[in-house]
Please model this.
Amino acid sequence: MTNSINQQLHQITSGISVIRSSEATDSDSLLGRVAFYLNEGYRLSLVCAKPLPQTILVTYCLVGKNPDRRHEIQLEVKRERPELPSLAKISFSASRFEREMADLYGIIPLNHPLPKRLVRHGHWPEEWYPMISSQEKPKFESDRQVGYPFQEVAGSGIYEIPVGPIHAGMIEPGHFRFFALGETVIRLRIRLWFLHKGLEKLFVGKTPAEAITLAEKISGDTSFGHSLAMTMAIEDALGITVPTRVASARAILLEAERIYNHIGDIGALANDVGFSWGNAIALDLKEEMMRLNSSLTQSRLLRGTLGVGTVKISDHLDLIGIDRIASKFEELIEILTNHSMVRDRFHGTAILGVAQAKEMGCLGVVARASGIEVDARIDHPFMTIGPTASTLETGDVNSRFLQRVNEIRASVSYIRELARFLRVEEPIAQVSTPPRESGFSLVEGWRGTIAHRVEIKDGIITNAKIVDPSWFNWPSLPIAMTNTIVPDFPLVNKSFNLSYSGNDL
Amino acid sequence: MISSQITNPKAVESDQIKKRFDPMGRFFVIMICTLSALVAISATTIALLAITRPPWHGSTNLFLAIYGLKLATDPLSGVFLLISGSLGVMVIPHLYGYLRRNHLPTTTVIAIPIFIFTMALVPLANSTPTFFFFWELMALASVPLVAAHPNDQSGRRATFVYLAMTQLGAMAILVALAIISASHPGTPLAGLSALSSRDSNTLRSLAFLLALIGFGSKAGIVPFHIWLPKAHPQAPGPASALMSGAMVSLGIYGIIRFCILSLGTGAKWWAITLIVFGSITAIYGILQASVNKDLKVLLAYSTAENMGLALIAIGLFQLFRILHLPNLAAEALGAGVLILVAHGLFKGLAFLVAGSIQSEIGITDLDQLGGLAKIMPVSTVGFGIAALSASGLPFGSAFIGEWLLLQTIIHLPRDIGSLVLIGPIALGVVALTAGLSVLTMVKAFGIGFLGTPRSKRAGEAHESSTTMSTSIIALMIANLGLAFDPGVINFVILHLSESISGVYPRIALGSRISITTTSSAIFPSIGAALFIVGAIAIYLIRRFTASKRPQPLDEIRWGCGAKELTPKMQYTATSFAEPLERIFSDILVPRRDIETDAFDSLDLIVKRIDLRESPHDAIETALWNRLARALDLVASQFRRFHNGSLIRYLMLGGLGFAVVMVVTH
Amino acid sequence: MSYLSLILQITLIVVISPLIGQLMIKIKSKAEGRRGPSLLQGVRELGKLLKKGEINPIGTGSAFALAPAIYLVSTLVLSAIIPLIALKLPGSSNYDLFWVVGILLIGTIALGLGGLDTATAFGGMGASRELMVAALIEPSILMAIYALSIRANSSNIFKIVHATLSNPQQIASPQSALALIGLVIVVVAEAGRIPIDNPSTHLELTMIHEAMVLEVNGPKLAMVKLASSMRLVILIGLVVNLFFPIGISYSTSSVGSIILGIVALVIKVSLLAGLLAFVEVFLAKLRLFRVPELLAGSFVFGFLAVTASYFLPVIKA
Model:
């Protein structure tokens, strides 16, 4: 197979353009092609597979910034012998996408260093792959208990702390296996994927409107982020450009979601250091912000607002309300940052190094707190103006806390700037480029960059792939926890605050 | 190092096979035990006579042609004789059981009665040559006990270190005794004749320091303690019990006899030196005990801790004598003696249980034990009582001694100037020691005996034989007896104090223990009665309300959704130690490596992680190993002269002679 | 009459403990702008737990089974051996403060061993942490006792309180203030309150006290909960009476003075508990390895108190 690269310029919003390209390759040159783009500064943002009658089509989506470039590399593997070369050597993220595909599609990554199951449940029948739709849904033997083979830490004196999947709090299932020596965590292993919902398969056969509603349920706290990503992916596939007014309204709501979640996280951080007063103030603020959401969109969680080419938002944006929240927030931050005990708990706890964060492809708050400049609002914008970029260096709990603080501040002023675009009168959304088979979107949700890729045929979704930033960030939590003390884990976990649901689709 | 040898499954297995095919003869064992019992019983009898009757002395020219053997008894020697004698008696059944089950080198077995005999003779010696003769005899007799595993390297190293420390101590003692007897030749020891101020102060101070080093090395005083954690795991359980419970105490006997009584009142700094060494030993000992995971090593370090506490008491005794406070001095001495007596009993008990575990399971590494409560109930209760005592808690035998020590400290008179600072410092030391010993003993008991077995061998063990249990039960009763009614040794304290200080201490030992001058008192039995009343009340309430509750259910433990918890999910002894290692890292200097074998350079995809521990004694590493290297260096320089040339040797000899002649003139 | 006042004292502690614990929660809630549960919530919880059937975790032994009872009994014994409402209780001449501390430790140890006996990571982890705190707190406690015993020339707890009562000017001395600070830290640590432990957390990994008793359930949990709240009240009561014994009954002969003693104790304990709860609002939980530093701090206060007692002149009435 020869590599033929197609390039084209594409508009998302009036005034914003993207350079896209794609190529098809074979398994021999795959490694070289991906390596080439990674060296060019692209990052692997999504890998998806689509079963075809004879083959499975695997697509590697690489994205680059300055300018916004998106490149797709496609590879076909045979149904009867589904194998592809593992890219683990050059990309840690690829190694995890490969394990996911192995579990869901049965595609075997050759020479994979850690070919253990990732998404698969222990009791699934061996030869059954849920995303291969031609297969019959098997009978599950619920009593077939297969424990996950954790890689143990050798040495007597090490003990294991099993935590989860059932937790003391109201959180989703995840199993944390600490290999600890006294209070020191030698290595943490995390086993997620307890609730495979078959979400990507659920999208198949849905109309765009249904898909946008369904996307709100990918991760409840990121309702708007995910549904916006789905909307934009669909618009991208259909070749629709939205007017600036719509884009700015979307950007405002995206920031609103960021603000209420970040405030909640900051409160939770205070709570996890036993400073419940701080949490009480934060909860109060979060409630106020959610009421503001409700006044804007009739939904506290910003649901039900998006449609293809449109967004429903109240005409009255309560900027005074936002200012009030912002000033109360500053009071809270003053209390928290001046509290010596809180500061001591945050400082130097669970440092995530830049090198490791970069190698794992971390995104969002976690990445920016470790000094990595990655922000879809700047790198892959859909609005003509962007927020002020900010990163921190240290990568400890304190950085992740301060990063959230800075982002809330930036969001507040960003909303003020965006507000003036709401009044711009413009024509409605229009089809500006010819529709294509697939659409791809990158949206900076409050956790980080969300990537969606859909394929549409005859107004019906035929394939969907969703990547929540948590997918990239989860592996970095154990790395940050190494040599951290056991009782600091809840705090560290909260400082990452990753999504279980967005990760386990 | 040591534990790895013992727990090496192959070594253990071959050991087992040996046991089965080469048992110790029943007749031989009975003979050894009878002999030991006879010695121990007579020692106890003499001890009781020595304490209650007026001092006796006698001599014979039988053994040492020049000086003759001079023996005497007084209450002080009686007390120490009583500790070794009574412990000896109680250990015999366990010894029998142990020898019947474990194959030991014949020299080790034969050494046991000799060892008990010499231990009994040491406090009876009444002249410096006699004393030194017995002391060396005891030291030599104890060496085969340590050399019970001559075939493994750690065993040989332990023997070597023990021998080296013993001989270093003996050298120091020899010089000290030489100084003492040079100025007062032929003075009997029991006569309490002291070197007086007419003797050179420098010489006396030198003798004091040398005796402190010499006897301190026997008592496990830091930094001369390094043989303790090496020797004890090697010696068979009953021998460890005797060595730790009785022999080590003789080091303190030596310090009382020579550093305090024979050398006279002395300077204040002597007393302070004793207190400082005692404090360092107590804290360092318990810190090491709290971070070690081998049961016998832990107990050995705890021995050092207790000797430290006793030394603090003895130091206070010395200080109060210098300050002419005879009553407080008597209290301090009483506290010291009670600490030693209690230590003999509870450490004897603990080492016997450790011996049972060694004999039945072959593992003393706590991280491979666990769950013994269900399979070795007598040993578990025994260790529980020993641990309660070792923690210095109420209802434990060591509490009374430690309480008296605290009472002496808090009743320091105000008018002794800056010396009152000794009070809060010593109390801080005792308190930290007590706190850490609680942690250590909870670790040892909780990890070793509770929970579920961490290894297959621990899970398959059985209770030790009835004879062995007899000893354990006897020592349990002795411990509880001392805890609830220390009046049984009241006469010891009274006679001792009267004979040394000339005053009766104002301590009333009985079921109620009080210091008559201060209205401080404790009454363990009342506390126990309150506990019993409370327990009955709760039991009755539970009984009464039981009908209103659903039937109890057996259910799996909470595993956060997991059905099974593995034994690896239990807390470990190493883990118990880790927080302390962090807190006291400056003292303990922990050594631990984590080896990671990863697929990538950032350790993101890991193939294997291995935790390598290298437990060590920071003082041994920092001081003794360096000293050994330095000595080695010096020796290699000297070796250059040893080229085998006869002429050179003659020349060197002549030169040396000339130097001696010049110097002496 | 003296036996009656003993029984009264024990009953009083049992009865007010759940209420005081709830009072602290209430004050904290109010300070944070929440309504907080009713004052009777603690009693209701105990009642609920007592009605529940017991679950015996498979694999645990008698140490686990007995631990809650020993913990509770040791706490009941504590409530009988310290002067809370009256100065002359039966057996009071035998209750040495060092011994009282030992009884306190026995309860801690029982729970720790119970935790280790569950053979779970949490049980052992909690036990290790609790004992670490207990071990490092020992010097602070004993030093404070030392400081207090100097002025009474006795470590008998009743004698110390008596000495304070008959010579109340001593309280205004620097050594008393230093000892008080040291002891308050001790109480906070011993009772497992913020900043050392967070009694309201649900996160197993950060717990100290609660992790040890994670397997304890039903009536046994009721015992542990009751004993824990009793220990807090006893410790607070001990501190207030060591430093402010106002109102405590001199003798046990008059009913009026005993009632006064009860009322005084309830008021004093509520005030101090309320104060502690209010201060907690502004504190965060310390990092586990900062706790030793705090305890070392309380040791230093005790040490200064002792040296001050020796070097400063005695204040006599």
